Amino acid sequence: MPNNADHDARNALVSRLFEDSARANRATLAATNHVIVAAADRVIACVDADHKILSCGNGGSAGDAQHFSSELINRFERERRALAAIALTTESSTLTAIANDYDYDRLFSRQIEALGRQGDVLLAISTSGNSANVVAAVHSAHAQGMSVIALTGKDGGALAALLSDSDIELRAAADTTARIQEMHLLFIHCICRLIEDHLLGTG
Ligand SMILES: O=C(CO)[C@@H](O)[C@H](O)[C@H](O)[C@H](O)COP(=O)(O)O
Ligand SMILES: [Zn+2]
């Protein structure tokens, strides 16, 4: 069992983490408020035209990619029609075959070659902006005529540099992976809320 001094130190650490997250939250809102709305509008145009959203990322960002697709396919907060979305992080046979036969860097890009169509949107998630398989996914999305919404952090990394003028970058104003991921989930929930308001009216 931790002693009292340890207990106080751990309480202080948790307070600091909450404070860091709140600071990141405020700074990210200031930097991205209108970009979040633009990203939601891009997804709305995609679903209104019966196109689909593909999503990808590694580690915690793989979880975020799945979190987003589940909220589109199932629902977020309100009853509405099902929306077409595929997380490219879930099919173990496909994932292991691509990594084994080609390269881990092609994990997502190969699936986009198979599934991506003009008018679809790729949600590309990387806290560093430097995951090679996410970078390759963006190249592949461009080749398929898709547009990209990139969730990034830090300085945006390689991802930010390769986005086209019609793509959208939502960059969390934070430097640590965990804080950036917390902002990414808030981006996702804001977009889901704006989609449901569009489909159902603000209620
Ligand atoms: O969730 C975490 C850390 O919070 C990790 O699993 C993290 O997602 C992994 O290290 C990823 O490989 C990091 O990739 P990226 O965000 O830089 O693209
Ligand atoms: Zn959620």
Automatic annotation (TrEMBL):
Q: Which Pfam families match?
A: SIS_2
Q: Which cofactor does it need?
A: Zn(2+)
GO molecular function terms listed in the Swiss-Prot or TrEMBL record: isomerase activity
Transferase recorded as keyword: no
Entry note: cofactor: Binds 1 zinc ion per subunit.
* Keyword annotations from UniProtKB, A to Z: Carbohydrate metabolism, Cytoplasm, Isomerase, Metal-binding, Zinc
Q: What does this protein do?
A: Catalyzes the isomerization of sedoheptulose 7-phosphate in D-glycero-D-manno-heptose 7-phosphate.
Q: Report the PANTHER family cross-referenced here.
A: DNAA INITIATOR-ASSOCIATING PROTEIN DIAA, SEDOHEPTULOSE 7-PHOSPHATE ISOMERASE / DNAA INITIATOR-ASSOCIATING FACTOR FOR REPLICATION INITIATION
Q: Could you describe the subunit structure of this protein?
A: Homotetramer.
Q: What is this protein called?
A: Phosphoheptose isomerase
Q: Which organism is it from?
A: Salinisphaera aquimarina
Q: Which gene encodes it?
A: gmhA
